[in-house]
Model the fold of this input.
Amino acid sequence: MLHQHLEEAVRVLELRRYRRILASGRLPFAFAAGILLLAGLMIPFLFGDQGVMAGRYPITTFRGWPAGVLLTTCALGAGLGGYLRVQQLWHQERRQQGFQSWLLSGLSPARTGLTTILMASVLGLALVAVPTAIGLVLALFGGLAWWQWLLYLVLYPVCALFGSALGTLTFFSSFQLTPKLLFYPVVIALGLAVGLLWLRIETVEGGWRKGWEEHPGRITRSLALATPVPVLFGSAAPKWWDTFGARSLGLRLPVAPAALLYAGCLLLAAMYIGFAGVRGYMALAADPDRADAKPRAPTDDPGQEFYWQGFRNPILTRDVRTRLRSKDTAEFIFFASIAVAAGAFVPLLMTASDLSDPLQTASAARQVFFWLTMTLVALAALVGPSLTADSITQERATGALELLVATPMRPRQILAGKLAGAVAVLMLLISPSLPLFGLCYLFHGASGPQVLGVFSLLLATLVLAALVGVTQSSINQKGGSAKFWAYAVTCGLVAVPGGPCWIAVAIAAPDAGMRKMLVTNGIGVTALIAVIAAFVLVLFWGNACEQLEYSEY
Done:
């Protein structure tokens, strides 16, 4: 029945594109790796003891939790895949003037819009096939019943369909092709649902008679219940749903009817959003010029992703592209990953015999968190100057600096592009530590504010090292001198008492008494060092801009 309402030409074309995309293997592999990484991050930050969706007991006490986390992430990934594919499709047809071809061929706009939404949902489901298979293997060991498998069989396509419909609506609303009146029911329904959930939780827990500081937590829980995550995870761990969802709402509502009810609501929302998106395409069919389509040379493979146009600052765009293709960057990331692994696992191996005790496990996690933090701060101080101290000297040696200065860009824009490009690449050094920090949080080795404080400190240290390296590269004519002064200044600012190393110990030290003592006695010193560092960096920046504007090349 549904097959009769699809445009066969669009369906066949999309199937051919999907075969090329899936046969290449790059996109499915990257998507599967992202799903597995995201599943690891969801455990501590959503389901941990202090997470948004923390139940009455730790997540590991519920049967089927590994399969639940992975299958939940896969369902969300299917929706994300459908959203990205339908967005790429519409943008691709707009650039290649495919809308005109579709309209001239006599294709029905309503059926074409419906076909693109459904086909994008199919690709979203295909992209999560590999991690879903892993999740099903975990489900076999977790002892999931047949009705739990049936719930995921219902929830998966609905999530993918909702993502595809949302992507279509987003595209056509960006060109003001969808009437604004169609947005109001969605916003009102979502706000009403969250508000009713919040009022119900407040009533069940007697929140009106308690302190106001507890209301934000209940609002967060109501927002969480409005997402598909609770019913998706609860389908694999029904007892968790009883402690988080049913108990919060004060209802004897098992996870099976709750999941089916949510799937029905999500399907209705997807149908309405898809209808609004198709209305936008029908408006475009009536007036194709409203999309402001620009001619573009056809590509050999229409299934490939469109080329990234870059940032507004061309220096930043070029630096990001060239550095990501550089062999030095790959080597730095490889050795940084080894250093991060050593800083994390050496303390763990030293206490491996005591990990059967939860208190000893938490103590080991605190040691891992401390040494991992200190390793990353040291890496930021050592790698930052090495990657940035030759950013201007290389341009000067190849003669390209004269061309850069001759462009309409100001010296500060050139330096800002170099700085932002270096920071963007240096942030890759932090990425291998994300799952390790998540495990430290999960095993009570660090609190949420500590993790956020460490990442803020690492970002500030990276910016400090990159700024010193870029400015010294502009001030000094030779690369050797630039690297010497970049390392000298960076190490001096990082290692001085009250600097980033001092702050790292104050945040991540295993002993709470030491942290309190360092914070109490080091606030004034840290403020003084921050003022001195800001003065030095401003001085370097002004000198670097002056060298670019007035020096002879």
DSSP finds 23 helices and no strands in the chain. The chain has a mean pLDDT of 79. The radius of gyration is 27 Å.
